[in-house]
Amino acid sequence: MPITYDSANDKILYVAALLTGSAKQWYLANETRHKPDPQSGWCVWARYEDILKDFIAVHENWHEVQEAKRNIQMEFQKADELIKNYVSRMRTWNMVANLPRDLL
User: For residue 104, what pLDDT band results from cuts at 50, 70 and 90?
Assistant: First the structure.
């Protein structure tokens, strides 16, 4: 809605109003980053793209994804493990790794 939310501040405040849970907590802990610093007049989140970049950097767990991909490649069904338990574990790692669902 570019006409309704035409400034960076309007966009940031709109997105902030939609956040919940840990995302909302993150925003509240950092909300002063979109307000100008009284001394320098500079703000970290001067553009809407800046808050998105920071949000993704904090909330996207790259290491967890990589570990899940390694687990998928290295894992075998254990001798006494039920197939449903093995498939469940692999589907969980598949979801964490952001891989297409049809791989398993």
Answer: very low
Maximal CA-CA distance, the chain: 66
DSSP letters, 39-68, are TT---TT-SHHHHHHHHHHHH--HHHHHHH
pTM of the model: 0.47
37 torsion bin: left (phi>0), alpha (psi -120 to 50), beta (else): beta
- Pair 31, 53: CB distance under 8 Å: no
19-26 long-range CB contacts below 8 Å, 24 or more apart? Answer: 22/59, 23/55, 23/59, 26/55, 26/58, 26/59
The tokens for 37 are: 């610093």
Average pLDDT, the chain: 77
